[in-house]
């Protein structure tokens, strides 16, 4: 989409009716590909095809736009595309799977920044032209700049929290709701002033500066536990900024449609994520739930409670006698890069006649679909993946559950402790399996900042250490049985 935004920033000369018709047909075909691409993204089985289909739609839109562009400006656009595409390709090839959430957050941010650059370019054109500016164009310039800058600065903070550069704990801002409310009202007033003054420079400058600060104050109070929701919401913002930019650039149909689809799908995903945590979006944005990641104590006792521990040999013996096993992955699996070892364990158990399924919580990890991406990379069959409801429907029939790095999404306190900040959040009920193995480095709390009661449950055995090494040890012990 960013390449398309650059292309749209170039002046488009008057074309004959045949060319206009062909471009409109190309944009219509692009919209068709976008919609079907999103539809196929609903299932892990067709997600890769859906992504390729949507990318083909964007390529078609870019080519159609370049076909009608001014040749002089087109060279600049192509040069920018090559430079930006090259930088993106290099970083995408080098990024580790554990850093994918940060990269997604940055993609959202730069999408918002690209929209801002486009509308600022249009604002410059309006100020140097002799014609009277369209009021609707000025309003959309302000709206796109507002959303784009909020997305950019907010995404930088989100990426910083995910990377650990910024504390994952909620940063409490005195008068947070008042400050954010005032920032929104002033931003709207500046958009009105931009229209009334015919595009005065001070209005757009003040709006951009305020929006950048607004993005920071909006994201800093979000705890790490809520980061999947925030990443999804920022993705929606980037789409809305692009759609608003489409109204500025000659009412471009493809940009409006693609931006609206990204905005709508991001909002829908945000709603799904909030439902998965049984919380409202307002609660996510303003409650400040969570804390920074905690390594916790290295022993088996904390807060006066003792957890039972086991080693790889114990796990192997119990798994060998099981008939049905559920594996529940979490962010710890990503950190340890243990997804391939997980698949190897599943394959080894399958050889022994054990049925293995994967329970995937909607908010496990640090971005929407994080665990699905990791398991797909390890070639885990889609048929083995169960969503939250499916997992809970089958968990009691499982002889064993293995939790790999997950914390808050399996914490029984969400069911039993009304004082807990995660009370009411739907979890995978792994404590109802015959036995539950928890692969963790320590007894540390998760991103929600609360101790996990699962660690001390009667049926739980803690297996301390690096998840990848632990799994390899379990596989070796199984082979020796």
Written overview of the protein:
The protein is an alpha/beta fold. About 1% of the residues have low confidence. The chain contains 18 helices and 8 strands. The protein is elongated. The strands form 2 sheets. A 6-stranded parallel beta sheet has the order 5-4-3-6-7-8. Strands 1-2 form a two-stranded antiparallel sheet. A hairpin with a 2-residue loop joins β1 and β2. The protein has 2 domains: 285 residues, no CATH class; 180 residues, 3-Layer(aba) Sandwich (Rossmann fold).
Judged by helices, strands and strand pairing, the structural class is alpha/beta
Order of helices and strands: HHHHHHHHHHHEEHEHHEHEHEHEEH
Q: How many structural domains?
A: 2
- Could you estimate the helical fraction of the residues in percent? 55-70%
Number of helices: 18
Give keywords.
alpha/beta, 2 domains, six-stranded parallel beta sheet, two-stranded antiparallel sheet, 18 helices
Q: In summary, what is this structure?
A:
The protein is an alpha/beta fold and 481 residues long. It is built from 18 helices and 8 strands. The chain has helices at residues 2-8, 17-40, 47-67, 71-94, 100-128, 135-163, 176-196, 201-219, 227-248, 253-277, 281-286, 312-320, 331-336, 339-351, 370-377, 388-394, 413-416, 467-480; strands spanning 301-302, 305-306, 324-329, 355-359, 385-386, 400-404, 435-440, 460-464.
Helices and strands in order, then pairings?
Blueprint: H1 2-8, H2 17-40, H3 47-67, H4 71-94, H5 100-128, H6 135-163, H7 176-196, H8 201-219, H9 227-248, H10 253-277, H11 281-286, E1 301-302, E2 305-306, H12 312-320, E3 324-329, H13 331-336, H14 339-351, E4 355-359, H15 370-377, E5 385-386, H16 388-394, E6 400-404, H17 413-416, E7 435-440, E8 460-464, H18 467-480
Parallel strand pairs: 3-4, 3-6, 4-5, 6-7, 7-8
Antiparallel strand pairs: 1-2
């Amino acid at each position: 989409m960013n390449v398309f935004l650059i292309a749209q920033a170039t002046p488009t000369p008057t074309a004959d009716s045949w060319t206009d018709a062909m471009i409109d047909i190309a944009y219509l075909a692009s919209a068709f590909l976008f919609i079907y691409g999103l539809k196929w993204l609903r299932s892990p089985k067709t997600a890769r095809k859906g992504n390729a289909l949507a990318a083909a739609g964007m390529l078609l839109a870019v080519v159609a736009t370049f076909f009608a562009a001014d040749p002089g400006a087109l060279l600049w656009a192509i040069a920018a595309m090559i430079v930006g595409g090259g930088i993106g390709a290099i970083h995408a090839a080098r990024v580790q799977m554990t850093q994918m959430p940060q990269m997604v957050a940055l993609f959202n941010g730069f999408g918002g920044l690209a929209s801002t650059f486009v509308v600022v370019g249009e604002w410059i054109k309006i100020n140097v032209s002799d014609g009277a500016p369209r009021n609707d164009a000025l309003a959309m310039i302000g709206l796109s700049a507002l959303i784009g800058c909020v997305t950019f600065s907010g995404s930088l903070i989100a990426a910083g929290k995910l990377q650990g550069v910024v504390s994952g704990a909620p940063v409490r801002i005195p008068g947070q709701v008042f400050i954010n409310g005032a920032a929104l009202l002033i931003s709207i007033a500046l958009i009105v002033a931009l229209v009334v003054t015919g595009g005065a420079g001070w209005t757009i400058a003040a709006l951009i500066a305020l929006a950048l600060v607004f993005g920071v104050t909006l994201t800093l109070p979000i705890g790490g536990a809520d980061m999947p929701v925030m990443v999804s919401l920022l993705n929606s913002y980037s789409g809305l900024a692009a759609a608003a930019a489409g109204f500025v650039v000659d009412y471009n149909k493809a940009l409006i449609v693609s931006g609206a689809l990204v905005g709508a799908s991001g909002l829908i995903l945000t709603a799904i994520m909030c439902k998965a945590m049984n919380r409202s979006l307002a609660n996510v944005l303003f409650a400040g739930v969570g804390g920074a990641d905690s390594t916790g104590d290295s022993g088996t006792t904390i807060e006066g409670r003792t957890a039972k521990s086991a080693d790889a040999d114990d796990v192997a013996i119990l798994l060998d006698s099981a008939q049905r096993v559920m594996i529940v992955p979490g962010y710890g699996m990503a950190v340890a890069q243990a997804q391939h070892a997980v698949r190897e364990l599943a394959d080894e158990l399958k050889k022994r006649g054990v049925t293995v399924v994967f329970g995937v919580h909607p908010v496990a990890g640090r971005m929407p679909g994080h665990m699905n991406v990791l398991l797909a990379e390890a070639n885990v069959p889609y048929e083995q993946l169960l969503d939250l409801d499916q997992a809970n429907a089958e968990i009691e029939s499982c002889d064993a559950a293995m939790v790999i790095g997950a914390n808050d999404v399996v914490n029984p306190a969400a069911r039993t402790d009304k004082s807990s900040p995660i009370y009411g959040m739907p979890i995978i009920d792994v404590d109802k399996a015959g036995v539950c193995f928890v692969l963790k480095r320590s007894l540390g709390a998760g991103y929600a900042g609360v101790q996990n009661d699962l660690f001390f449950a009667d049926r739980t055995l803690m297996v301390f250490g690096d998840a990848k090494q632990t799994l390899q040890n379990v596989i070796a012990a199984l082979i020796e049985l």
